[in-house]
Hints:
Layout lengths: L1 E11 L2 E10 L5 E6 L10 E10 L4 H5 L12 E4 L16 E4 L5 H15 L4 H15 L14 E5 L13 E4 L2
Parallel strand pairs: 1-4, 5-6
Antiparallel strand pairs: 1-2, 2-3, 4-7, 7-8
Amino acid sequence: MTRVGSQLTFCSPELILRNTVVEQDAQNKVVRMFGLNDNSVESANTLFFDGILSAEIVSLKQILKAEISENEFKSYNYIDISGNSTPKKIATSDKPLILDFGTTSTTEINKFINYQTSFLEKFGIFEIIAACTYYPLLALGLPAKLFENKITKLILWENADLINKLFKAETRIKNVN
Length: 177
């Protein structure tokens, strides 16, 4: 069992928990989630991080093993941000945003973040997290919310502006398990 805690835990766009610990087994299955303010639970052997915890990054290109056309996910504002070119200006849309890095490697994604900072800074941090962890799963018809019994790697989003909930040039991600 591993226990990981942080200031914020992104479960879904509608559910962002404060001061929460996520406990996982050896297969990355979420065994339970509990608040640090809950006095009935012992928080010993918990790794605490500064940032936002989320489920793992999802790449539709990687899962589908193909380039994705604009019409493939019509209900979403799908943007391919793999590679070194900054996406064209995107039209304002009521559709949920999906950002596809073309990989799930945190090392590779952090390299893309370096190239895409000016583009990514236009969005709130929770919108970006939802766009690459939550909405891609919904687009595939899969459970997307971080919840007990979900099998997922945990990602830590570091150096975001937590007060204003913004993505910053220094924001990076890392695996925590």
